[in-house]
Amino acid sequence: MESTKKNESNVNITGIIAITVVILGIVAGVFWYSGSWDTTVVSRVESNKTEASIGFWTPRDFMDIKGQEKREQIAYGKQLIKHTSSYLGPKGSVKSLSNGMNCQNCHLDAGTKVYGNNYGSVKSLYPKMRARSGTIENIQKRINDCFERSLNGKALDLNSKEMIAMVAYIEFIGSNVPKDQKAEGSGLKDLDFLSRAANPQAGKVVYEAKCASCHNSDGLGIMSGSGKEYIYPPLWGPHSFNDAAGLYRITNMAKYVKYNMPLGVNHDSPQLSDEEAWDVAAYVVSMPRPHKSVPKDWPNITKKPIDHPFGPYADKFSERQHKYGPFGQMKKAK
Ligand code: HEC
Ligand code: HEC
User: How far is the CA of 324 from the centre of ligand 2 (A)?
Assistant: First the structure.
């Protein structure tokens, strides 16, 4: 008798605990889904200074935003940077104008990671003159450049809620940097040239050993079950960035990979040697990807970066050498 009673009350307690857990789960789910998670919990976690960020720019804290409406706008902008494809990709809930990648795939931690191609200097340095277009570009133009090239898609309407939110987010996080100053650790970290050309065959070996486990040996990445965004983004193939994108230039690719990949690596703890970074970058840029014709780029060819893989050039070096190096002698010749 006694023991059955005990069992019953045990069952009751277990039942109550189970229900509590489910309710807590639902509350957390609603909280997360509504975006509040992102603005409160995550921003606090991200603003905790880790060793790799000491002495470098960190984004302005979301707690500094005045007003609910502004807070929601900036939080939406952040969501769009992190989950671009869910809103604007092939199965986007707002519109379909990009290739399935997210801005965050290349602008890590929503564009806040030290030397993870972050947005620290955007608010302080834009509008600015860019040699690629030969014009003064504002932030909207720069964002649409990435839509048309890095996301191999179409430009976003300048007056759309999405463009306004992304600009608001990028401007807010960089609003702690004085005008005309470069934020410490923004963009990509410098990497020495090799004395030889980067070698795609050697890079394939690095790729198989250190990248294929996530990006897949076919380089096409891994799509999530919902088909809305990638778990591991593609590095080449039809859904990758096109050949007019900044990351198609080998120096950008090598710098990005050296200080950020395999995922989890920081600028102060790289895992790849310089040779491995250059060679794997060469392999990635040697693979097929969408082509975009941009006849108006680099109106002044003397301003073309050394690693721009398409002629005409102001020097005598071949397209192949401009694509893979060696770059040292080219630099001297200039
Ligand atoms: C495939 C990688 C990739 C993706 C995806 C990508 N970008 Fe970029 N983006 C870059 C690279 C590389 C640069 C720097 C290029 C250069 O300076 O030549 C850049 C530069 C920028 C800049 C200027 C930064 C500065 O300091 O001058 C902004 C702003 C920007 N991207 C916004 C976006 C937005 C918004 C998205 C999503 C809609 C996006 N990018 C998606 C690779 C990417
Ligand atoms: C542990 C998994 C993992 C490994 C291993 C890994 N990556 Fe990544 N990589 C990612 C993820 C995830 C992203 C997107 C990050 C995000 O959205 O926050 C990414 C982004 C990238 C990007 C920019 C986005 C794109 O699709 O073009 C490049 C380039 C890249 N990785 C190259 C490499 C290379 C080269 C290696 C090997 C040296 C490598 N990765 C190893 C997970 C990985």
Answer: 21
Instruction: Say if residue 279 is exposed, middle or buried (CB neighbours under 10 Å; 0-12, 13-18, 19+).
Output: buried
Longest dimension (CA), the chain: 97
Residues 207 and 284 in one domain: yes
Measured in angstroms, how far is the CA atom of residue 261 from the centroid of ligand 2? 6
Q: Is 108 in the pocket of ligand 2 (CB under 6 A)?
A: yes
What's the CA gap between 211 and 128, in Å, rounded? Answer: 35
Lowest mean pLDDT segment, chosen from 15-29, 181-195, 204-218: 15-29
Domain boundary among 156, 187, 218: 187
The CATH number assigned to the domain holding 104 equals 1.10.760.10
| Ligand 1 surroundings by CB, under 6 angstroms | 81, 84, 101, 103, 105-107, 117, 119, 121-122, 139, 142-143, 146-147, 150-151, 166, 170, 186-187, 241, 245-247, 252
Pick the closest to residue 245 from 97, 40, 99 (CA basis): 99
Give 102-154 pLDDT, tens digit per residue: 999 999 999 999 999 999 999 999 999 999 999 999 999 999 999 999 999 99
User: Which secondary structure element, helix H or strand E, spans residue 232, and what is its range?
Assistant: strand 230-232
CA distance 107 to 116: 6
Q: What is the pTM of this model?
A: 0.88
146 and 174 in a single domain? The answer is: yes
Query: 302 has which bridge partners?
Result: none
User: Nearest C-alpha to atom 31 of ligand 2 is from which residue?
Assistant: 261
